[in-house]
Design goal:
With 146 residues, this protein is an all-alpha fold. It folds into 2 domains: 57 residues, PG0816-like (Helicase, Ruva Protein, domain 3, Orthogonal Bundle); 70 residues, Helicase, Ruva Protein, domain 3 (Orthogonal Bundle). It is built from 7 helices and no strands. Helix 1 crosses helix 2, helix 2 runs antiparallel to helix 3 and helix 4 packs across helix 5. The longest helix has 20 residues.
């Protein structure tokens, strides 16, 4: 809502990106400039694709590629997976997203050791990251509690 209680109008691409960010990149969900710029680029890509003879579903795929580029790997989702798989007795599944948000700044150094990309989860280095995150989360919980 705007300050005068009017609803904010969002394009299809802005809304799609915002919903995705809230789910997988909550630290970026309030970056309205990023959302607007990426949504505009996706809309332009879609329009150009149609003008260049692509059919609708191909244009949509191209626009979505632009919209979500660099966002397929999620630090937040990775932490949630570690919590679900390794700390299920300590952290109830429904609480994992909130705990992940709290842990994210404390795990920044672990993530920065790796060349994170859209397809990072499919690399051999992902298992090493997962193991390091498990250890770092365990240390955090021992020092600060859950």
């Amino acid at each position: 809502m705007k300050q005068n209680n009017e609803p904010i109008e969002m394009s299809y691409y802005e809304l799609s990106l915002l919903l995705f960010l809230k789910e997988s990149h909550p630290d970026k969900a309030n970056d309205t400039a990023f959302i607007e710029a990426r949504a505009n680029l996706a809309a332009e890509t879609y329009e150009k694709a149609l003008l260049n003879g692509y059919v609708q579903f191909q244009a949509e795929e191209m626009a979505n590629e632009v919209l979500f580029c660099g966002l397929h790997f999620s630090r937040h989702d990775t932490i949630i997976n570690v919590l679900w798989n390794e700390f299920s007795e300590e952290v109830p599944q429904g609480d994992a997203p909130k705990v992940a948000i709290r842990l994210l700044p404390h795990l920044k150094d672990v993530f920065e050791k790796y060349p994170l990309s859209d397809d990072f989860a499919y690399t051999t280095e992902y298992e090493q990251l997962y193991t390091e995150l498990t250890g770092a989360i365990l240390i955090y919980f021992e020092e600060y509690g859950i």
